[in-house]
Amino acid sequence: VQLVESGGGLVQPGGSLRLSCEASGFTFSSYAMSWVRQAPGKDREGVAAIGVTGADTYYHDSVKGRFTISRDAAKFAVHLQMTDLKPEDTSMYYCAAKACLWPNLQSETYPYWGQGTQVTVS
């Protein structure tokens, strides 16, 4: 299983970013996917998750209405569109996967992780 994130960067408050995760080495259509973030000194936090069909999505309360998770079955990719970014969104963002039809925000249930992409809002 390989997950490669991209799209992070430095953005001003109120700005937008689109994170992408390219997946390989597994049957993408059978895996639920999630975006998880962790800032220095803080607990890991599941921010968004999506099921295998893309119809089921879950969001942390702090990002509802601002972040949108989606998946592209043809390109084996998952995206996180982030809008109205706030300084408290600053974190390393990780793509995670698990062999399950149904997603959740419990990051400890995802065994596969990417290397992460840094998002800084300042």
For the biggest sheet, the summary is: 7 strands, mixed
Which structural class matches the secondary elements?
mainly beta
> Can you tell me the residue ranges where pLDDT is under 50 for at least 5 consecutive residues?
none
- What is the terminal-to-terminal distance? 34 Å
Total number of strands: 11
Whole-number mean pLDDT: 96
Regarding quaternary structure, how should these chains be classified?
A: single chain
Order of helices and strands: EEEEEEEEEEE
- In percent terms, what proportion of residues is strand? over 45%
What's the Cα radius of gyration?
13 Å
Gross geometry:
globular
Share of helix, binned: under 10%
How many individual helices?
0
What would you say this structure looks like, in words?
The chain has 122 residues and is mainly β. The chain is 0% helix and 48% strand. It has no helices and 11 strands. The strands form 2 sheets. Strands 2, 4, 5, 6, 9, 10 and 11 form a 7-stranded mixed sheet that branches. Strands 1-3-8-7 form a 4-stranded antiparallel sheet, with no helix packed on it.
